[in-house]
Structure formats: structure tokens, C-alpha cells
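Regression test attached.
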Amino acid sequence: MNSTRKAGGFFARLSSTRIVYLVALLTLIVGAVLVATTGRNFFSPGNISSILTGTSVLGFIAIGQTLVILVGSLDLSVPYVASLTSLIAAGVMANSSANILPGVLLALGAAAVIGLANGLIVAGLKVHGFIATLGMGLIISGYLATNFKGSFGQAPFAFRLVGATGLGPVPISTLIMLGCAVLAMLLLHRTRTGHHIYAVGGDLNVARMSGIRVQTPIITAHVLCSLLAGMAGLLLASRLGVGSPTVGSQGGYDLLSIAAVVLGGTLLSGGKGTITGTLGGVLIFAMLDNIMSVMQVNPFLKDVVRGVVIVVAVAVYARRSIVKRQPRFGHGQPEEPARKQEVAA
Amino acid sequence: MSRTMPPAGAAVLEQNRAGAGERFLRGLATPGGAVFLLLVALLAAIIVANPSFGEPESLIRFIGRTAPIAIAAIGQYFVIVAGEFDLSMGSVVTMQVIVAGNLIGDDDAKVLPVLLLMLVLGALIGLINGLVTTLLKVPSFIVTLGMMLALFGLVMFWTGGAAQGNPADSFRQIGRGGIQDVPVFGVIPYPVIILAVAAALGFWLMRRPYGRTLIAAGDNSAAAALTGARVWWVRTRAFMLSSLAATVSGILLVGYAGVHPSVGRGYEFTAITAVVLGGVVLGGGRGWLLSAAAGAFALESLFTLLNFLGVESTWRDTVQGVIIIVAVAAAARSWQRRRRGSALPARAEQHRITATSAKPAEGTEQGGNGY
């Protein structure tokens, strides 16, 4: 009993971001040992490169998802936005390198419009983000299913290089993703909108009463999230060489990105969390995938492992009290006494 | 205000209470009531598009076809009204379908034991979801997402992703068969009866102390805990009800759709859509159980209507997306208006009644409540 309390104290003192990276380190060690038993090297440049490649697509989406979750919303439309942008980009480029710039701009423009629509529905019409983006995802998915029966367009060689090359073991796509992460961090910690995102996510009414225009951060977060999903779509188009109407939904990026964000210590109800934590969550997923591929785990069992890891990892730190403030009236949290009685009963 | 309230406070409340007709109309104006109007409008539109749909035989078959998703929506309602999500529902349906297909086989004697096993499995999954959510304090979105991935992975691992097994015909009759030779309707499918029983049980449960506590816990969990409710156990039972509902849906779907790992895919989002269409507020504490079931019927009749109008089935998703956004936006507006508007008339009405009865207070010339 005493030791568990001590452990609780140890965990309570750690920030959730540190716990995420401890979990990532644990995954790394376990992975290295497991991979070594098959006679291969976990830290070979090829393997590191493949892990980092695995982080980039989910990374883009998870960074955007972090912004949206921080502001107290959700985005379930990201996989469809990614599919749509991959189609637009590959369609406009049509295997000609002169069209790369228009293709990219048009694809990101479409993503931004979708994000704007999401933001306006959530902030203006007061529709829960879950429903607004679920609906938006369905709308796009219907459009995609009706108009595209298979892969479409062709990405030129120069554009495909983006997804295929790297600096040493680090792929270019991962570097771009990290660049976006840095920009998102700057936005969150150095700009007014960033602080407003935390404030609105923490408590919308308090934010409004302190004079914040609550619509602006919500809309900004949604637009940025869709843009980043669009970046993921561009990357997918560059890797596949074509646009595909199902590439996003097959990846299950909506739920996986939310899982990565929560795994990274961000509160699902908004107002608390960091991009750094999210990157840790994405890294854990990428390493798990890699380890299981190297170990040749049955692909269906991968889902089982992922599901268990998500719940267990979040459970590790979800038990700690979320609010670090001193209790105001000398009591603990209101639920505490009731729970003790329950345990006794 | 309560200081000068006449002792017959209850009588005043009774006076303030509108007549049954007016309360019915007011109920229809809430999001939970409006879904019934939407349903009636959609059914009318279908009958205009295809008059033979209005015959009792095809109506009852429509109800039977919608029963699995309506039952799932009823289950999801318990979880949503408690302020949580259950994303594992679709995987539970898939799992139960596969369990039935593989374990029952052609042996009629195995039907009952396997049926019991499925119910136990359903309750167990709900119990795990609930306990991890309430005791380990992992957000239910994550818990049930993990459960969804894990269960689906296990099912696919077990079956290799292909259809297999075909349960005994007596088992499939639960979803497929019905009471024959009924006047007017012809056949009453068993799913209709099961749905009616589930709806009645759910309706009764929501009027029991359990239902009241569940809504209180969804509205304000800390306040519910302070009144002495065992919030964690109330919520856990909601998860169990949800998984059991998914189990029942699965049993019905074996009869309809057969045994395949794709049965039940996307059920969680359809069920949540139906519940939200029924005016139940995500985040908990508001909404009616029967409206959630009506939401499922509205969704299904929308698809039927699109079908009759000859719209390509690929556009179904788009229409569904537009409808849920519009419905929820309208509901959000309506709840807001009610909350802003309702306080003033109610108070004015009470003021009027008590003012006529209350004597002027000591040392003042005015009677009434003193505001």
C-alpha cells in the first residue's frame, strides 16, 4: 500500500509529457530487445528511417487534431480530407512537374475551405465538434464514393521524390512534419490566438466573459487541422504516385490521431496538452507498428495490441488528478469522499 | 422568493402546470419531440413516392428491418445520456455475429447455451468498458476505441477476414421469422416484438431511480456524487446496457445478414447519429430514450426515401451528413431559445399567482414575492 502511494507520488510529480516519453523509451527498449531476438538490428539506419516514415502521415494529422482537441472540439473528417486532397493534387498535377505548385495550392485551398466550414458549423451554429465533423466526413465520403471509383491522376516524379528521399536516415516528409510541429508550437505558445485556444478549450464561458472572441480560435484550429490533414493527403499522393478516394479512411486516421493526441497527454475535453506530447504519442504508434512488422505479427493482432496499448498507456496517467490547484475550501475533489465510501461498501 | 411562498407550494406548481394538450405541444417543440414530427414527415414522403409502402405489411417489415439499429440506438442512448461514448458497439455486433456463426453450427441443442454465452460476453465487455472508464478514469472515447480495435482485431484474427459458419436455422429465425397469420399485418416479425420489449424496458428503466440517477450523473457528475449516488456503478451499468443492446442487435442481424466480419461495421457511428438525431445532447443529461429510437427510424426512413427516389446509394453518406448537421444545429438553437425564454414566462406566471394570494409583507405596502 505504502509503495503504491509512493509510486503515485512519483507519477504525480511527472508531467504527462514526460510520462509519454518514458512510455516511448520503454517501447524502444522492449522493441530493441524483441527485434534483437529475431537477429536483426532495431537501430539500423533502414529501420530508423522506416519508423520515422511511419510517423509522418499520422504526425501531420495528429498535430492538427491536437489544436482542435485543445480548443475543445474534435475532427473526425480528417481521413476524408486527406483522401480528397490526394485526389485533387494528383488530378491537377497530371504527371507534369509544371503543375506541382497549382496542384498543392488547390489541394490545400480545398482543405482550408472544409476546415472553415467545420469551424463555422462548430463555432457559429453551436454544433458539437463530434457531430459537425462526423457529418462533414460523411458529406465528403459520399462525394468521393460517387465521383471516384478508383485511383485517379498521376503525381510527377519530382513530387514523388518528396515522399521517397531523405537526409541520411531522416525522410524529408518527417522533416516537413516536424517543421509544422514547430510552427504549431509557436502558434500555441507565442501568439495571442494560441493562448486563446487554451482559454477557450479550458472553459468557453469563462473565456467569453474575459473578453475573448471565442469563435476566432475555434475556427482557426479547425482550418489549421484541415490544412494539416491536407498536407497528409499530399504526402500520401506523393508516396502512392496517384490520388486515392479510400487512402484516408483505410488508414483509420481519425480515431488513431485522436488516440495519439490523448496518448500524448492532451485532455480530450480540451484546454490542456502539448504538441510535444502528441509527437511522443505518434512515435509510440510508429514504433509499435514497426516492431510488429519486424516480428511478423499477424496484421489483425496488431489492432489488438494497438487497442490494448492505447487504453493501458492512457490509464497510466489518467488516474492522476487533472487539476493541480490547491483545493479551495479545504476539501478534496468533490468526488473523492463518495468514492472512498464506495470502496468501503 | 421561497420565503414568502405560500405553504401550498405544490398547489402553485400544479397551477403553473399547463394542460396535457399544451404540454404535448411543448414536448413536440423540443428536439426530442421534433424527431417524431420528422419521422412522420419522412414516412409521409415515402408513401407519396411509393404508395405500397403505406400498407401495414410493408410498414411492419420496415419496422422489423430497422429494429437492430433502433435497439443499438437505445443502448447507445444510455451511454450518451450519462455523458460518455460507446465506440465499441460495432465491434461487439461483429463479434457476436461471428461467435454465433462459429459456435452454434448446425446443432439446434447449442442454440440456448451459446445465446447465454453471447449475453454474458456482451455484459462482460460492457463491464470492462465501464470499469476502465469510471475507476481508471480513462476517457470513454479512448476506452471504447481501444475495445473496438482489440475486438475487431481478434474477430479478424479468428476468422481470417472471411465469412464462415452458418448457425442453425432455429437461431436465424430470431432475426428472420415472425408470428404468422396475424390479421391486418400478415406476419409480425420477431425483431418487432423484441424491439417493442426493449423500448418498453428502457422506458420503464429511465423512470426508475436508476434512470433518474443516470441522467443526473450525465448532467453533473460531481453533484450526483454529492447526493450520494454511486456514479461509477451507475455509469458502468450504462456501458453494460449498451453492450447488451449491441449483442441483441447482433443476434437479430445473424438472421438478416448472415455471418460475415463486415456485419456491424460502422454501427457505432450510425447509432450515435440516430441518438443525436433524436435530440439527445452529447455530453449527457438531456434527452429521451424513445426519441433515440425514433432517431434510428428517421435515419432508416431517410435512406428508404432516397432509395425510392432513385438517388445513387453512394450519396447516402452525404445526405446523412447534411441531415445530422442541420438537425443538431436546429436542436442547439432550440435548447438555447428554451433556456433563455423559459425562465421569464415561468417566473411571471408564478408571480401572478402568488401575488394575488400573498398579503403585503410587514412594513411594506406591496404584496407578492418582494422582487
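Expected vs. actual: identical. Residues 38 and 154 of chain B are 40 Å apart (CA to CA).
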